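ASSEMBLY PREDICTION REQUEST
Request ID: AP-0331
Submitted by: J.K., bench scientist
Number of chains: two
Total residues: 236
Priority: normal
Notes: Please return the full assembly, not individual chains.
Input sequences:
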Amino acid sequence: AQSVTQPDIHITVSEGASLELRCNYSYGATPYLFWYVQSPGQGLQLLLKYFSGDTLVQGIKGFEAEFKRSQSSFNLRKPSVHWSDAAEYFCAVAGAFNAGGTSYGKLTFGQGTILTVHP
Amino acid sequence: NAGVTQTPKFQVLKTGQSMTLQCAQDMNHNSMYWYRQDPGMGLRLIYYSASEGTTDKGEVPNGYNVSRLNKREFSLRLESAAPSQTSVYFCASRGGTSGGKRVETQYFGPGTRLLVL
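STATUS: Completed
Returned structure:
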Protein backbone atom coordinates (compact mmCIF):
# COMPACT_ATOMS: atom_id res chain seq x y z
CA ALA A 1 0.00 0.00 0.00
CA GLN A 2 1.18 3.50 -0.73
CA SER A 3 2.01 5.87 2.11
CA VAL A 4 3.53 9.29 2.69
CA THR A 5 5.42 10.52 5.74
CA GLN A 6 6.13 14.12 6.55
CA PRO A 7 8.46 13.88 9.56
CA ASP A 8 8.10 17.51 10.66
CA ILE A 9 4.74 18.49 12.10
CA HIS A 10 5.71 22.12 12.63
CA ILE A 11 8.61 24.20 11.27
CA THR A 12 9.46 27.80 12.13
CA VAL A 13 11.76 29.92 9.98
CA SER A 14 12.64 33.59 9.79
CA GLU A 15 11.55 35.62 6.82
CA GLY A 16 14.26 35.53 4.17
CA ALA A 17 15.70 32.23 5.38
CA SER A 18 15.79 29.12 3.23
CA LEU A 19 13.27 26.35 3.69
CA GLU A 20 13.21 22.60 3.19
CA LEU A 21 10.15 20.48 4.01
CA ARG A 22 10.71 16.75 4.05
CA CYS A 23 8.56 14.11 2.42
CA ASN A 24 9.18 10.36 2.21
CA TYR A 25 6.92 8.03 0.29
CA SER A 26 6.35 4.33 -0.03
CA TYR A 27 5.13 3.05 -3.37
CA GLY A 28 5.95 -0.01 -5.45
CA ALA A 29 6.36 1.64 -8.84
CA THR A 30 7.33 5.04 -10.20
CA PRO A 31 5.18 7.43 -8.22
CA TYR A 32 3.30 10.53 -9.16
CA LEU A 33 4.17 13.04 -6.44
CA PHE A 34 2.59 16.33 -5.45
CA TRP A 35 2.97 19.19 -3.02
CA TYR A 36 -0.12 21.15 -2.02
CA VAL A 37 -0.40 24.23 0.20
CA GLN A 38 -3.32 25.16 2.39
CA SER A 39 -3.74 28.60 3.91
CA PRO A 40 -5.92 28.85 7.04
CA GLY A 41 -9.59 28.31 6.23
CA GLN A 42 -8.86 27.66 2.58
CA GLY A 43 -8.80 24.73 0.20
CA LEU A 44 -5.70 23.06 -1.19
CA GLN A 45 -3.66 24.67 -3.92
CA LEU A 46 -1.25 22.68 -6.05
CA LEU A 47 2.35 23.93 -5.74
CA LEU A 48 4.07 21.45 -8.02
CA LYS A 49 4.01 17.88 -9.27
CA TYR A 50 6.40 15.19 -10.51
CA PHE A 51 5.33 12.64 -13.08
CA SER A 52 8.54 11.72 -14.89
CA GLY A 53 11.64 13.24 -16.47
CA ASP A 54 13.73 15.88 -14.76
CA THR A 55 13.91 15.09 -11.08
CA LEU A 56 14.04 18.76 -10.08
CA VAL A 57 10.63 20.31 -10.61
CA GLN A 58 9.71 23.95 -10.37
CA GLY A 59 6.41 25.14 -9.00
CA ILE A 60 4.51 28.28 -8.27
CA LYS A 61 5.50 30.92 -5.72
CA GLY A 62 9.22 30.16 -6.11
CA PHE A 63 9.03 26.60 -4.75
CA GLU A 64 10.91 23.62 -6.12
CA ALA A 65 11.13 19.95 -5.20
CA GLU A 66 13.60 17.19 -5.97
CA PHE A 67 12.62 13.58 -6.54
CA LYS A 68 15.23 11.15 -5.21
CA ARG A 69 14.28 7.60 -6.00
CA SER A 70 17.15 6.09 -3.97
CA GLN A 71 15.93 7.87 -0.85
CA SER A 72 12.18 7.64 -1.62
CA SER A 73 12.01 11.34 -1.00
CA PHE A 74 10.41 14.38 -2.56
CA ASN A 75 11.52 17.34 -0.45
CA LEU A 76 10.14 20.82 -1.02
CA ARG A 77 12.51 23.80 -1.01
CA LYS A 78 12.43 27.56 -1.26
CA PRO A 79 15.59 29.74 -1.16
CA SER A 80 14.00 32.70 0.64
CA VAL A 81 10.76 32.46 2.58
CA HIS A 82 8.19 35.26 2.62
CA TRP A 83 5.71 35.91 5.43
CA SER A 84 2.91 34.98 3.04
CA ASP A 85 4.30 31.43 2.81
CA ALA A 86 3.00 30.67 6.30
CA ALA A 87 0.54 27.82 5.75
CA GLU A 88 0.22 24.07 5.98
CA TYR A 89 1.97 21.98 3.35
CA PHE A 90 0.95 18.52 2.22
CA CYS A 91 2.93 16.00 0.25
CA ALA A 92 0.91 13.38 -1.65
CA VAL A 93 1.48 10.34 -3.83
CA ALA A 94 -0.94 9.14 -6.51
CA GLY A 95 -1.72 5.46 -6.69
CA ALA A 96 -1.97 2.93 -9.44
CA PHE A 97 -4.39 2.65 -12.29
CA ASN A 98 -6.34 -0.29 -13.49
CA ALA A 99 -5.19 -2.34 -16.43
CA GLY A 100 -7.82 -1.00 -18.77
CA GLY A 101 -6.25 2.44 -18.68
CA THR A 102 -9.15 4.04 -16.87
CA SER A 103 -7.47 5.63 -13.93
CA TYR A 104 -8.84 6.42 -10.54
CA GLY A 105 -5.70 8.07 -9.24
CA LYS A 106 -6.04 7.42 -5.52
CA LEU A 107 -4.17 10.20 -3.77
CA THR A 108 -2.59 9.50 -0.39
CA PHE A 109 -1.58 12.48 1.71
CA GLY A 110 1.02 12.96 4.41
CA GLN A 111 -0.03 14.39 7.75
CA GLY A 112 1.02 17.89 6.80
CA THR A 113 3.71 20.34 7.97
CA ILE A 114 2.69 23.66 9.45
CA LEU A 115 5.06 26.45 8.49
CA THR A 116 5.35 29.52 10.71
CA VAL A 117 7.35 32.49 9.43
CA HIS A 118 8.84 34.98 11.89
CA PRO A 119 9.45 38.57 10.73
CA ASN B 1 -14.48 28.73 -15.19
CA ALA B 2 -15.13 28.24 -11.46
CA GLY B 3 -13.19 24.95 -11.05
CA VAL B 4 -14.59 22.91 -8.18
CA THR B 5 -17.41 24.38 -6.11
CA GLN B 6 -18.88 23.08 -2.87
CA THR B 7 -22.01 23.93 -0.92
CA PRO B 8 -22.61 24.71 1.82
CA LYS B 9 -19.50 26.38 3.22
CA PHE B 10 -20.50 25.76 6.84
CA GLN B 11 -23.08 23.55 8.51
CA VAL B 12 -24.05 22.70 12.07
CA LEU B 13 -26.03 19.50 12.61
CA LYS B 14 -27.44 17.71 15.61
CA THR B 15 -26.60 14.06 16.14
CA GLY B 16 -28.90 11.91 14.01
CA GLN B 17 -29.71 14.57 11.45
CA SER B 18 -29.01 13.99 7.79
CA MET B 19 -27.56 16.25 5.15
CA THR B 20 -26.06 16.23 1.68
CA LEU B 21 -22.88 18.02 0.69
CA GLN B 22 -22.87 19.15 -2.91
CA CYS B 23 -19.91 19.32 -5.27
CA ALA B 24 -19.72 20.39 -8.89
CA GLN B 25 -16.85 20.83 -11.35
CA ASP B 26 -16.82 22.59 -14.69
CA MET B 27 -13.54 21.18 -16.03
CA ASN B 28 -15.10 18.17 -17.78
CA HIS B 29 -13.12 15.84 -15.52
CA ASN B 30 -13.93 12.17 -15.35
CA SER B 31 -12.91 11.42 -11.76
CA MET B 32 -14.21 13.00 -8.57
CA TYR B 33 -13.34 12.47 -4.92
CA TRP B 34 -14.54 13.22 -1.41
CA TYR B 35 -12.00 13.66 1.41
CA ARG B 36 -12.25 14.58 5.04
CA GLN B 37 -9.56 16.55 6.83
CA ASP B 38 -8.93 16.20 10.55
CA PRO B 39 -6.11 17.80 12.55
CA GLY B 40 -2.86 15.84 12.37
CA MET B 41 -4.29 13.28 9.94
CA GLY B 42 -3.95 14.98 6.59
CA LEU B 43 -6.73 14.23 4.11
CA ARG B 44 -8.38 10.84 3.99
CA LEU B 45 -10.36 9.54 1.06
CA ILE B 46 -14.01 8.78 1.80
CA TYR B 47 -15.36 7.82 -1.63
CA TYR B 48 -14.36 8.35 -5.21
CA SER B 49 -15.94 8.12 -8.63
CA ALA B 50 -13.57 7.11 -11.41
CA SER B 51 -16.11 8.05 -14.07
CA GLU B 52 -19.77 8.91 -14.44
CA GLY B 53 -21.88 6.00 -13.24
CA THR B 54 -19.28 4.45 -10.93
CA THR B 55 -18.46 4.98 -7.28
CA ASP B 56 -16.10 3.18 -4.93
CA LYS B 57 -15.15 3.26 -1.27
CA GLY B 58 -12.00 4.94 -0.07
CA GLU B 59 -10.25 4.64 3.28
CA VAL B 60 -13.05 5.88 5.57
CA PRO B 61 -16.46 5.25 3.95
CA ASN B 62 -18.47 4.23 7.01
CA GLY B 63 -21.39 6.54 7.73
CA TYR B 64 -21.40 8.08 4.25
CA ASN B 65 -23.02 7.52 0.89
CA VAL B 66 -22.33 9.17 -2.44
CA SER B 67 -24.09 9.82 -5.72
CA ARG B 68 -22.46 10.66 -9.01
CA LEU B 69 -25.42 12.53 -10.42
CA ASN B 70 -23.79 13.28 -13.77
CA LYS B 71 -20.32 14.07 -15.02
CA ARG B 72 -20.31 17.45 -13.25
CA GLU B 73 -21.79 16.62 -9.85
CA PHE B 74 -20.77 14.31 -7.00
CA SER B 75 -22.66 14.53 -3.70
CA LEU B 76 -21.84 13.15 -0.27
CA ARG B 77 -24.64 12.19 2.11
CA LEU B 78 -24.59 11.72 5.85
CA GLU B 79 -27.71 9.71 6.71
CA SER B 80 -27.42 9.96 10.49
CA ALA B 81 -24.72 12.40 11.53
CA ALA B 82 -22.44 11.60 14.47
CA PRO B 83 -20.01 13.85 16.39
CA SER B 84 -17.14 11.81 14.92
CA GLN B 85 -18.10 13.21 11.53
CA THR B 86 -17.23 16.74 12.60
CA SER B 87 -14.59 17.62 10.05
CA VAL B 88 -13.74 19.66 7.00
CA TYR B 89 -14.86 17.99 3.79
CA PHE B 90 -13.14 18.55 0.48
CA CYS B 91 -14.28 17.57 -2.96
CA ALA B 92 -11.76 17.19 -5.78
CA SER B 93 -11.81 16.35 -9.45
CA ARG B 94 -9.24 14.97 -11.85
CA GLY B 95 -9.14 14.58 -15.60
CA GLY B 96 -8.27 11.22 -17.19
CA THR B 97 -6.40 12.23 -20.33
CA SER B 98 -5.69 15.40 -22.24
CA GLY B 99 -4.26 15.29 -25.75
CA GLY B 100 -3.43 11.63 -25.26
CA LYS B 101 -1.55 12.30 -22.02
CA ARG B 102 -2.81 11.41 -18.59
CA VAL B 103 -3.82 14.37 -16.46
CA GLU B 104 -3.12 13.23 -12.92
CA THR B 105 -3.57 16.39 -10.93
CA GLN B 106 -6.47 16.68 -8.52
CA TYR B 107 -8.08 20.08 -8.10
CA PHE B 108 -9.79 20.85 -4.83
CA GLY B 109 -12.85 22.79 -3.84
CA PRO B 110 -12.84 25.32 -0.97
CA GLY B 111 -14.25 22.85 1.57
CA THR B 112 -17.32 22.45 3.77
CA ARG B 113 -16.86 22.85 7.52
CA LEU B 114 -19.25 20.55 9.37
CA LEU B 115 -19.92 20.53 13.09
CA VAL B 116 -22.05 17.76 14.56
CA LEU B 117 -23.30 18.43 18.09
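REVIEWER COMMENTS: The longest strand of chain A covers residues 87-94.
SIGN-OFF: pending second reviewer
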